[in-house]
Amino acid sequence: MKITVLDGYTENPGDLSWDWLKSLGDCTIYDRTPAELIAERTKGCDIVITNKTPLRRELLGTLTELKYVGLLSTGYNIVDWEYCKEKGIPVCNIPSYSTSAVAQLVFALILELTNAVGIHSSSVHSGEWTACSDFCYWKTPLTELDGKTLGIIGFGKIGKAAAKIAQAFGMKVLASTNHPTPTENVEFCSRDELLARSDFVSLHCPLTPLTEGMVNADFLSKMKPTAILINTSRGQVVDEKALADALESGAIAGAGLDVLSVEPPKEDCPLIGAKNCYITPHIAWAGFETRERLMQICRENIEAFLSGKPVNVVY
Fold first, then answer.
1. What is the mean pLDDT of the segment spanning 159-180?
2. Model confidence over 73-123: pLDDT tens digits?
3. Given 17, 79, 155, 239, which is the most exposed site by the fewest CB atoms within 10 A?
4. Which of 11, 120, 204, 234 is catalytic?
5. pTM for the complete prediction?
6. How does DSSP assign 168-223, residue by residue?
7. How many whole angstroms separate alpha carbon 225 and alpha carbon 253?
């Protein structure tokens, strides 16, 4: 059996083991695969595993030995799964592996924007506290979360996990979703009402034709000028120019983002350098335990396929 991992580095930069996969046959693991080498590296493969390296119809049509496509991600738009469905090739993703980690990063961003730990730590290390006339100082207004309102758009597993953390901080929780289910201490309302009432708006919706560019100038104009936007879902949900303009004009107070519309971003991305905008490089999923869980589910997916009972098939 010939197996290829096209872009294994982000999942496993060296702190996990691929030995279980190598034991299954002739296995080659590449850190990254540029577009011009995809065809060469997948030729003759029975199993191809990818994270962000695209597998399009034109390529898949040449892979006559292909029997299985494994994803190192939850999203599967990188693979022409419709072609694979036509040919009976399972495409299996990694669902629900990062719920706790993403919810954790939501609050890492919120806390940085409300407590400014990084700014104050840097100021202490630069000598400001040593030179201070008082026993303490603060560089920016600080905000208490207790009693504030978190508005969650999209109320799947991650949205629900974020709601639980918010409640532990004493926050009120609003949610806007197409499929509301009664949840203790969560108030469901329209999106416009959520925007008008929330001190923090956290996006947890999938990328669809309806949500692409959803956070536009009109959306942002309905938020409080003191409100903060958090996005750990998909970068394309946000109109980045509109958000940069809203931050610059003071239409909203700040933003915390783990995703952008193009990753890595181009130099002309309007949010790079935007006022009061914190951006992390798509790291919510990157904790050791989270990647370890991803690897285990990937293994279980392949073992299920080899036993004739594939699981987590995306179609």
1. 97
2. 998 999 999 999 999 999 999 999 999 999 999 999 999 999 999 999 999
3. 17
4. 234
5. 0.92
6. HTT-EEEEE-SS----TTEEE--HHHHHHH-SEEEE-----TTTTT-BSHHHHHTS
7. 6
Residue 3 in tokens? 């197996």
Q: Pull the structure tokens for residue 278.
A: 């914190």
291 in catalytic set: no
Active-site option among 41, 191, 282, 299: 282
144 has catalytic annotation: no
148-171 as b/e, with b when 16 or more CB fall inside 10 Å? bbbbbbbbbebbbbbbebbeeeeb
Q: Do domains 2-97+288-306 and 99-279 have the same CATH topology?
A: yes
Radius of gyration for the chain, computed over Cα atoms and rounded to the nearest angstrom: 22
What pLDDT shows up at residue 150? 98
Q: Which of 30, 60, 23, 18 is nearest to 43 (CA)?
A: 60
Does the N-terminal peptide bond of residue 281 adopt cis geometry, omega within 30 degrees of 0? Answer: no
The pLDDT of residue 200 is: 98
Q: Which of 188, 253, 190, 189 is nearest to 224 (CA)?
A: 253
Measured between alpha carbons, how far is 255 from 88 in angstroms, rounded to an integer?
A: 44
Q: CA 93, CA 73: separation in Å to the nearest integer?
A: 6
pLDDT of amino acid 196: 98
The per-residue pLDDT for range 259-279, each reduced to its tens digit, is: 999 999 999 999 999 999 999
Task: Give the pLDDT score at 173.
Answer: 98
Report the alpha-carbon distance of residue 150 to residue 199 in Å, rounded: 6
Domain ranges (residues) in the chain: 2-97+288-306, 99-279
* From 58, 128, 144, 263, the catalytic residue: 263
For domain 99-279, the question of CATH label 3.40.50.720 is answered with yes
Q: How many CB atoms lie within 10 A of CB 234?
A: 19
pLDDT score for 62: 97
41 is catalytic: no
Residues 2-97+288-306, CATH architecture? 3-Layer(aba) Sandwich (3.40)
